[in-house]
Amino acid sequence: MPTLDARVEPLERIVETCTREIFAGGTILIPNDTGYCLACDPYRSQAVDRVYALKARPDHKPLTLLVASPAEFLEYAPQNPLAILASKRLLPGPVTLIVRRPSYMSDDVTAGHMTLGIRVPDEPLARAILERAGPLASASMQDTQTPADLTIENGPARYDRESTIVDLTGRYARLVREGAVSYERLAELLGPIERPVVKVRSQS
């Protein structure tokens, strides 16, 4: 499968090649701020199915939507005060923000869930691609060996941890997974943060 190295290729060529592949219904493997991700047009069912197959992702696990800017993120979370605050203080950044699924977003992407995870990566190359080709449905990948229709190499990621996942669908933000942004930092930026409750059962 074709591979382009963003460290030596002109940005415009990278963006145009990715856009052509996405518009043709293909899959692309691109860098983001926490690694690489396999991505496609979220409104093409066959492309979404291929992402699931290449990732070997279980059908019940949703994909993440990548968008180019905080303003675009807010288009998917209207009238959500927590989303407005998070867009100002966390984006772009290594966080996945969960909002209520808009009616126009396909079940193919959300795996039937009533929520949608969205990222605005802190990676200029990824955002340039998203500006032209996005939004994109995506799944994180550990390396660049997945046989996507097009692979973009760009060296190591900015962060060496996975993204932090924050649920913004309730009264308060809720930490789902701690990653590159710590619980303490989230609390500084967003105020009260709910944490997952782990029930410890007695062995007696």
Q: How would you describe the overall organization of this protein?
A:
- There is one protein chain.
- The chain is an alpha/beta fold and 204 residues long.
- It has a single domain, classed as DHBP synthase (Alpha-Beta Complex), CATH 3.90.870.
- Helix content is 30%, strand content 24%.
- It has seven helices and eleven strands.
- It has helices at 11-23, 45-55, 70-75, 81-89, 107-110, 124-133, 183-190, and strands at 3-5, 28-32, 35-40, 64-66, 95-100, 115-119, 136-141, 150-153, 164-167, 173-177, 193-194.
- An eleven-stranded mixed β-sheet has the order 1-8-2-3-7-4-6-5-9-10-11, with helices on both faces.
- α1 packs across α6 (124-133).
- The longest helix is centred in the first third of the chain and has 13 residues, at 11-23.
- The chain is globular, with a radius of gyration of 17 Å.
Give the overall average pLDDT: 94
Model regions low in confidence, pLDDT < 50 over at least 5 residues: none
Strand order, sheet with most strands: 1-8-2-3-7-4-6-5-9-10-11
How are helices and strands ordered from N to C? EHEEHEHHEHEHEEEEHE
